[in-house]
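User: Um, what's this?
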Amino acid sequence: MKIRDILLQKKGGAISVSPMAPLTVAIESLVDHHCGSLVVMQSEQMVGIITERDILRAEATTERSLEVLVVEDVMTPHPHTISPEDEVRDSLAVMAENGFRHLPVVDAGTVVGVVSILDLVTADNEILKSKYEQITHEKLF
């Protein structure tokens, strides 16, 4: 199964935020969209990603109030990306090896979505379930 298959099942594309947006705006967007990450876009170019973890880390390590921080202060710049043509298993390995929970999906330089670890584990489970059913069916007939 490819990443594009997951994106077809998801509603909408990536939710984005400006690097100069107040951090409180990013937090509101995460809550409003029920998501764990936002792609940080500047002039139609992805410049980073901000996740719930980034915000929690900023709260725990900075002496400044979250109200005075902007997205750029806490985002992860130049995040690792994957392609819609990448395999789910390969993308899952990238996440596991690097400790990522979200990966932007880029096609020909354009962000077309974001996949989460839950998206990939769910898809991988479906792959395994399908293979098991196929093997079981073959043994019966």
